[in-house]
Design a protein that fits this description.
Layout: E1 4-7, E2 14-22, H1 26-34, E3 45-50, E4 56-65, E5 76-83, H2 85-97, E6 101-102, H3 107-114, H4 120-131, H5 135-145, H6 148-173, H7 180-202, H8 204-212, E7 214-219, H9 226-234, E8 252-258, E9 261-267, H10 277-292, E10 295-301, H11 308-316, E11 322-327, H12 337-340, E12 346-348, H13 357-367, H14 383-404, H15 409-427, H16 433-440
Parallel strand pairs: 1-6, 7-9, 7-10, 10-11, 11-12
Antiparallel strand pairs: 1-2, 2-5, 3-4, 4-5, 8-9
Helix pairs in contact: 4-5, 6-7, 6-15, 7-14, 14-15
Bound molecules: guanosine-5'-diphosphate.
Length: 447
């Protein structure tokens, strides 16, 4: 096994940079560079690193984590040096000269996985933790890093193993078919595993949103207050607010956190008939943004007459996931939804005073089906895990079908083994090299 090295902090200038080494030569390389005989394990040592020709590279804090009590399970050395790209490069060059090689993306985590320090779901949680955009996403990734997903799957796997053992031994030792009570018992066990898998996989709608976020497009005819609403939502003045109709000609997007869900809000050009080429282009982009959106906010000016453009938009979005927003509720001329848009449920807001915005936040979360984010339950956030859960469930369904139809034990066993294998792939017990390299290619270097 070679010794790998990488810069573990972001590139660029900073107070500190951390370089990490892992592998059998890590401590020997550190000793040579620091001109020291050894280091006290897990204690930071203030020392000066030198190159092979005795040039001073930097004064650093160096910490050794001898195997197996380290992140990767191998000898690990962490060097905190000054955060200058030139210093980092010189230290890395000196380390490479002493025989280490540059780590591939995720290679530290991969080694931790190979040495049984973490399972695959935890390795993926490390990546998600780094990529998390909101507090809620951080909390979910941290729970998975703690092994909660693996723990949640354990009872399912245990039950499947029990059923498999029962059927295998029936196959080996029992002359006659399994008695009916035993078949019923196996069926019940499989039903309970399926129910548990369903509970987990259903949480993916909320989990995916937490991880990947949602696209929300604000649309409406010109001057209803789309840009003002966009600004209130993103709490900044990035969009141009003006009383000249048709000034927002392009789409403008900003990422915000609504109840823990990362939401990209897009302000779009006002929809109306126009002969202006630039405005037409903007309107085309609006249609595209609406098509791409997970949720459309249809803004109507509640203080003026609802016009044909508003009606057309209401008709066109009737079958999309939308929220009708009646804006300008601060004005005396404001009318209720029953007057402005009879038969359509709407949320009253004032983009100007902020009234009704918290209702709008709740309505956005409800429409995105993300109510599971706050209640502290474990969520499936990863498409790979979700697919494996769904495939495992399908296999268990097949097994139940075979069992009910009194097929031979072999026919029941095959899908059960498949199901168990698929669940094992979530934690990496039964994962091939190809899948591993695909997953680790999405990591950043130094992790
Ligand atoms: P857009 O064309 O739909 O993006 O509309 P804007 O956000 O540019 O707003 C058009 C006009 O309506 C501006 O003069 C805003 O100040 C005004 N406006 C927007 N929202 C409100 C509101 O909630 N209350 C009041 N009183 N005026 C608003």
């Amino acid at each position: 096994m070679n010794t790998i090295v990488a810069l573990s902090t972001p590139r660029g200038r900073g107070a500190l940079a951390v370089i990490r080494l892992s592998g059998p030569q890590a401590i020997a390389i550190a000793r040579r560079m620091a001109r020291l005989d050894g280091f006290e394990p897990r204690h930071a040592t203030l020392t000066t690193l030198r190159s092979a020709n005795d040039e001073v590279l930097d004064q650093v804090l160096l910490t050794c984590f001898p195997a197996p009590h380290s992140l990767t399970g191998e000898d690990v050395v962490e060097i905190s040096c000054h955060g200058s790209p030139a210093i980092v490069r010189r230290i890395l060059d000196a380390i490479l000269e002493l025989g280490a090689v540059l780590a591939a993306p995720g290679e530290f985590t991969l080694r931790a996985l190979m040495n049984g320090k973490i399972d695959l779901a935890q390795a993926e949680a490390i990546r998600d933790l780094i990529a998390a955009q909101t507090d809620a996403a951080v909390k979910q990734a941290a729970r998975q890093l703690n092994g909660e997903l693996s723990n949640a799957l354990d009872p399912f796997k245990q039950k499947l193993i029990e059923v498999i053992v029962l059927l295998e031994s029936a196959l080996e030792f029992v002359e006659d078919d399994l008695p009916a009570p035993q078949i019923n018992q196996i069926d019940e066990t499989l039903a309970s595993v399926i129910a548990g898998i369903d509970r987990l996989s259903q949480s993916y709608t909320a989990g995916r949103l937490l991880r990947d976020g949602a696209q929300v497009a604000i649309t409406g005819r010109p001057n209803v207050g789309k840009s003002s609403l966009f600004n209130s939502l993103v709490r900044s003045e990035r969009a141009i607010v003006t009383d000249v109709p048709g000034t927002t000609r392009d789409t403008l997007s900003e990422a915000i956190d609504i109840g823990g869900v990362p939401v990209v809000v897009t302000d779009t050009a006002g929809l109306r008939e126009t002969s202006d080429n630039v405005e037409t282009l903007g309107i085309e982009r609006t249609h595209r943004a609406m098509g791409d959106a997970d949720l459309v906010l249809v803004v109507i000016d509640g203080s003026s007459e609802v016009g044909p453009e508003d009606r057309e938009l209401l008709d066109r979005t009737a079958d999309t996931r939308r929220i009708v927003v009646l804006n300008k509720c601060d004005l005396p001329a404001f009318g209720s939804a029953s007057r402005c848009v009879p038969g359509v449920e709407a949320i009253n807001v004032s983009a100007q005073t902020g009234e009704g915005l918290s209702n709008l936040h709740s309505a956005i979360l409800a429409k995105l089906n993300s109510d599971a984010t706050e209640d502290g339950s474990l969520l499936i956030t990863n498409a790979r895990h979700y697919d494996l859960l769904c495939n495992a469930r399908r296999e268990l369904d097949v097994a139940r079908g075979c069992l009910r139809d009194r097929h031979s034990e072999e026919l029941v066993l095959a899908p059960l083994h498949n199901g168990l294998k698929l669940l094992g792939q979530i934690t990496g017990e039964t994962t091939t090299e190809d899948i591993l390299s695909e997953i680790f290619a999405t990591f950043c270097i130094g992790k």
